[in-house]
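Researcher: First entry.
Model:
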Amino acid sequence: MDEARFEAAIAPAVNRANMGLARYRDVLKGRKAFLFPDSQLEIPLARFLARECGMTLIEVGTPYIDRLLMDTEIALLPAGTALSEGQDVEKQLDRCRAARPDITVCGLGLANPLEAEGLSTKWSIELVFSPLHGYDQAADLAELFVRSSERRRRLSV
């Protein structure tokens, strides 16, 4: 299929997604994200956060990088995005704490201690089990990240 025909076919869905994302993009744009390795969804999530929501990626950690599956996604990340494969939790925690991201995507075991240190977290397991498929749920995915920031704002004194 030629590219123009493909773009025309997906245009209505892309427009709906962009309209849904608009209100969340305003909240997320320019915010910093740090993704700990947990689910192997980190690279596509990071691509979404950067390209669709305007977030700045501090580090994108993933347990394993399958180059056959992820090279296309990695190419869509902003130039210079720090990627880490595997887990060296202490070093990753040090980098995260030093960067003070606006949103930290991590497993449940790290979330509570990081929240206690004043960092806003999003549980990676929640992203695994959320029914997010394609353009129609793009705004739903962005809203999950906005909720973390909103919860932190409401809890601040």
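Researcher: Second entry.
Model:
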Amino acid sequence: MSFITENYKLAAETLAKAFAKRGMEACYCATVQEARDQVLSMIPEGSSVTWGGSESMAEAGVFEAVCQGNYEFIDRKAASTPEEARALYGKIVCADYFLTSANAFTKDGMLVNIDGASNRVACIAHGPANVIVLVSMDKICTTVEDAVNRIRTFAAPPNALRVGAKTPCAKTGVCADCLSPDCICCQILVTRYSRVPGRIKVVLCGEKLGF
């Protein structure tokens, strides 16, 4: 076991206590495979399941497993018209489980996310009965300000490339704090407390996932 792996394990124990004080549950998985299995074990068969854009969940194979499993999958991309999208969103916010990641988190147990369309941060804040957050340990930050800086420096530019956004960072690789029509940093959500105990469950992964 490497010193980094051992440190992640120790840090996760501390983080679990910090998240618990904020009404959230957290557990640690050393590998991506263990994290995938842990997420799936939290979702009873027959549950309605949906998600926001999450490279971490996709890389871990969670989305594929849900699509192939015995769940009521609500596909956010299934709508072909604005009217269908609005009706579908009504189902999404009432889902049993919402799967997502976090762009960053703080050492005292706060989740920090920045969003463009903002459907993801909306569902983290309110709506689905359960929210499962899969996030790798390399996204730990000291403060909320550090977390926002991390997201804008390391996560937003490659994510802009992924979605084909016509933003300055997609051209230069560096955040310009833009007000572009394609801006993917429209809403910043800091989840500092969950008033519904255990609604948000955080799976911390010792291997790198996402941006």
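Model: Note on the second entry: Residues 3-205 form a domain with the Rossmann fold fold (CATH 3.40.50.10420).
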